[in-house]
Structures are given as structure tokens and as C-alpha cells.
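Q: My labmate handed me this sequence with no annotations at all. I'd like to see what the chain might look like in three dimensions before we decide whether it's worth expressing. Could you predict it?
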Amino acid sequence: MAARRAASSLLSRGLIARPSAASSTGDSAILGAGSARGFLPGALHRFSAAPAAAATAAATEEPIQPPVDVKYTKLLINGNFVDAASGKTFATVDPRTGDVIARVAEGDAEDVNRAVAAARRAFDEGPWPRMTAYERCRVLLRFADLIEQHADEIAALETWDGGKTLEQTTGTEVPMVARYMRYYGGWADKIHGLVVPADGPHHVQVLHEPIGVAGQIIPWNFPLLMFAWKVGPALACGNAVVLKTAEQTPLSALFVASLLHEAGLPDGVLNVVSGFGPTAGAALSSHMGVDKLAFTGSTGTGKIVLELAARSNLKPVTLELGGKSPFIVMDDADVDQAVELAHRALFFNQGQCCCAGSRTFVHERVYDEFVEKARARALQRVVGDPFRTGVEQGPQIDGEQFKKILQYVKSGVDSGATLVAGGDRAGSRGFYIQPTVFADVEDEMKIAQEEIFGPVQSILKFSTVEEVVRRANATPYGLAAGVFTQRLDAANTLARALRVGTVWVNTYDVFDAAVPFGGYKMSGVGREKGVYSLRNYLQTKAVVTPIKDAAWL
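A: Here is what I predict for the chain of 553 residues:
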């Protein structure tokens, strides 16, 4: 069950279970746990302190053939899968090997025009915003049922295209997509306006109307979940959508979009364009026919999206951007528990998570013990083919990200941080990187300032609550934070002082459907999930009519 807890940390609601003493001290514990989890003999690779052993971690076995066929590689426009207008395609690759999985239609400005035109017709003339809210609810609920019926295919596609473990996609991400769609389906017939009193003989209605055509751009690190976060509320509110997928991971969104049509979504309500940011993304962001834009990705790209939206028709924009989230371990912490939770907060999804706990602040009284145990846990982390049972960490998304992470590792070494684990590629094939831990990290170092987006843990030392609050907030980002303490007063003080959109206390990565998510400062604008996400896709209209001979006002 320990493996399931690790894979489903997104759904954790409280303090993690205390690991056994052996679980953070030696390979014998890993072997014992492996037997309990049903690991296959020979399926594990364990890092040791020896670089030669670490280097073979992901290279000694042939990749498993994914148990799924690629069915959809074309653009989805007006209910049909079609080629790009230019006829161009691009390769989506297997990050385990760098081999091509499939060639996908490469959408550009002309395809965005076609998709927006289809969405506009569907909204202005089609049945979706005109059917009852209950009927829209039923479509989204049927979609959730289909997600569950095709869960194995969807999970395998997400693992194959993105490198995340099959245990993660099967046990956590696909079930969460179904949950999100049921959540938003439930909201569809509960969106209503108000009747408000006026200072005179007037009847005043406040209506909440669908905003129109929503352009949505999703990232490569969580393509399925971001599909649900964005498409779910937009459709529940009665809008039409043009969705641009990330060029690294287009396959799962195309697959689930086909299921939405099977569930009864009218043609043109959801359109999916695969393509690149400077072409398809820029065209969508600046399109005069798009009424609303939502983007998840890097802060730098978010600025471009916001500028393009402003320069075109001043469309409102929701942004969920980067982070450099602090994970604060107080001096009263159970160190074994803190090490495990900090490990998961950083290394989850190969470290490719916008809210990763990438600055681990540890109180000076427990710092040395924490560093040693964090090192041991990183050396035990199971890296390999994400289709294999028991693997904790798959490859990074692509060669570009792989090189970027290793450059940050070099920067950490060059700046004087102490490399206590990892620091190199794992194996000789694909984009695997050793779980890496730095100690003696200082605030001014690049690895403590910039978003690495990889399996690199930076451990910093602090002395007082006032000091750690000041240092944790000294960043342009403000997405999330973690606090690990047994003292309620300390938890309350930190939760209110940290300038972030989410504070997890004695837990991390809890993403329930009703819990809002978004950032302060340069980590974004607006909120995803919960009732707050519905506001992104609604217009507010006041309707005032006179009342004659009113019996009451």
C-alpha cells in the first residue's frame, strides 16, 4: 500500500503515515516493500552512492511495449478529425527512448481560424448554450462514465507520451479527470443569477451568462488534468471551446475529446488544435473571435499570452504560471515524516510540477539529520521505465528539458552548493535524470531562484519563523507552499504570512475538485477549480425594468 500512497499523494488529506525506520535507511527496506507491492524480480533499479551504479538505473532493460494504439492524430474541428490546412505534421516522441510515437497534425493560424469559426457557430447558432442546463449536466456525466470505461487506454497514452508512471496515471490522474467532470457536470444546473432590490420601482435581475468562445492553452506536464480543469467549467457554463494542446503531449487530449462527442457533445462545441506556441498558440491568443483565454505554462510565455490578448480584443485572461514553492520544516517536525513528504513534494511527476516544493527550508536544529535522510531517500528512489510496476520516476519530457535540468545541476555545483545525491543522467538512453539533492543552498543561488522543473531538491537552512517567512516570500512567484510542524500556532502564523495561493499544512499536492488553485504575484491571475473557475467563463449582466403599481418593493 505504500506505493499506492505515493502514487496518490494528490488525493492525500492529512499527515502522511509514519514510514518504518527501515524505509529511509537502507536497500533492504526497499526490497521488503517491493515484495509487499508485488514488484517483479529484476524490475527495480536502485541508486547507490556509486555513480557507476546510478548510471545504469534506466538502461539495463528494454522498454515495455505500451498496451495501447494511437487512434487520433488529426485536429478536431467542428466534430471531425481533419488534417492541418498546410498538411504539415510533427513528431510526438517517447521520452523513454526519444523514438517517434506518432506524427500529429500541426495546426497553425489557418487551423485556429477554422476552429474558432466552428466554435462561434456552435455558440451563436447551435444547441449547446440553448439546451437546458440539466442536459449539459448529463453530457458531462456521461463523459465521466466513458473516461472510466476507457481508463486503461487513457492512462497508457498519458504514460507513453509524457513519461509519467503508469501507477500515477492509472491510480490518480485518470480517476481525477472523471471526478472533475462529474463535479462540473453537477454545477451545470446550479449556476443562477439574483434578483436584487432597487431604490425605486424597478425589478432588477442579475444574470450569469456564458462568455462565448473560450480559447484554452494547456501544458505538457499534466495534459489530462489541465484538460479537465479548463474544459469542464467552460462547458458547464454553456460556452464553446478551442483548445490548444502542448506539442510534446497531444495524444491524450485528442482521445478524450473523441469520448466527449460520444457522450453527446454537439459538433463545434469543443475543437482541439495541436501545434506550437509561436504559431497556433499566438494565433489563438490574438484572435478577435475569442472571447476568453485561459493559459497554463511558464511565466515568460504567460506574459506573451497576456500581451497578445490585450493587443487584440482585450479578452479576459486566466493565467496559471510558474512557481518556486517553499516547503518549510520546523524544528518540532518528525524528521522521517518530513523527509518523505518533502521528497514527494519535489520529485512527484519527475519534478515537472508548477507547485513543486523546490525550496526545502529546514530549521537548523534538525538540518543535518534531514539532509542525511533526504540523501538516503533520493538514492533509494526507483527510476526506470514508467510502465514497470514499482517505478517511482520516469524520464523527463524531452531532450530540451533534460539538458536544461542538467545545466541547473551544474550551476548548483559551480555556485558552491553541496551535491549530496544524483547530479547526472540515469542510463544512456532516453531522458532519465538521477534524483538530485543539494545541501548548503543559499538564497542567491540560481537553483534557489529559478524554476528548474526537474528532480532537483535544494535544501536551505533557517533559524526563526520571521526569517523563513521573509526568505520564502523573497521571490517573484507565489503559487504554493508547504508547512510541516506539530504546533498549531506556527502553522497558523506561516499559513497567513506566506504570499501564495495555496498552503498545505502537513500534507502536499491535494487537488480536490472543489479546492481553488492559483497564484499570487507572477504565478498567475485568477483561480482554477471549484466555484471560482466558473467565474472565469461567465459574464454578469444586470437587467432593469420598471414596475408600475407595485404591491411591494
